[in-house]
């Protein structure tokens, strides 16, 4: 049978708020069945003015204490299941069902034990901060300065979106946790004071914040996993990438020293990571037949949308490129029969380069040598369709 599923809008640390919410759902014809993380599953039933009670579990365990179920059953309460292994959920079978606690101080003692157990979660929250904040701050801090001036470049070159997911996820997790503890502390205070009236349901007790936090932190976690396992490399000759030999057929490519940040020469590296464009890089170096040092550096990025690729090229080949690399203005090249959307060429006398865009892909070529890069537009255009 298909069970209706709802996001839980109330904090898991707010037993009275949860009971009020379950009663609200019962009035709409949904009876509690089980929980799946931050989701609550219901069974369809006739709308009814039901009464719920959530008994804090003494320890986290599968299933409720049989003696507790029997005790509540004798008072007219039916056991429905556990709520996240934190509470045993009971439903009053009739209006004559006895109140579970005639002595509110006894209920306060049960809440005190649950509150002390909930405080241990602060250690897990602190561990999450220590695990997520340093790496995301390290990979993103240099990019924040570029955001006001070159936003697409900043978000494409630095892990700013994953960092925002991590930081905002931790903020919502903190809010959800402390709002829940505050609701639990209020429930303890009311129980000690002997107040039996249930407070009005406050859905801002952290339930929705917990859902938002879970989604954002899951995205940040997926980024970390893909950043580690999404890296691959191949020899240039085993791919369709344009080799330095295309520009310098008689070159000697024996210069294979490693060079950061490009890594090993003569190898194409690909990096895939969530919320960042897929990027390819390779570098080749060697000696021309005149015994002059030559080199080729290629950086490609594939964006989600062509508009982002166009904006990225504009930022990198415009103001940013003149201030950073190279020092000369880029000029447009004829693109007939190449399939390119944009083609820009620059040179400073010693080096030359290309900025190319084809759909969602942007290619940045930097070359040291005597060959004419503009004659290789068709080769680079074909390469952009066949990147590994």
Task: Describe this structure as you would to a colleague.
- The protein is an alpha+beta fold.
- The protein folds into three domains: 112 residues, no CATH class; 110 residues; 155 residues, Protein Transport Mog1p, Chain A, CATH 3.40.1000.
- It has eleven helices and 14 strands.
- The strands form three sheets. It has an eight-stranded antiparallel β-sheet with strand order 7-8-9-10-14-13-12-11. The protein has a three-stranded antiparallel β-sheet with strand order 1-3-2. A three-stranded antiparallel β-sheet has the order 4-6-5.
- A hairpin with a 4-residue loop joins strand 12 and strand 13.
- Helix 3 runs antiparallel to helix 6, helix 4 runs antiparallel to helix 6 and helix 6 runs antiparallel to helix 7.
- The longest helix is centred in the middle third of the chain and has 33 residues.
- The protein is elongated, with a radius of gyration of 31 Å.
- About 4% of the residues have low confidence.
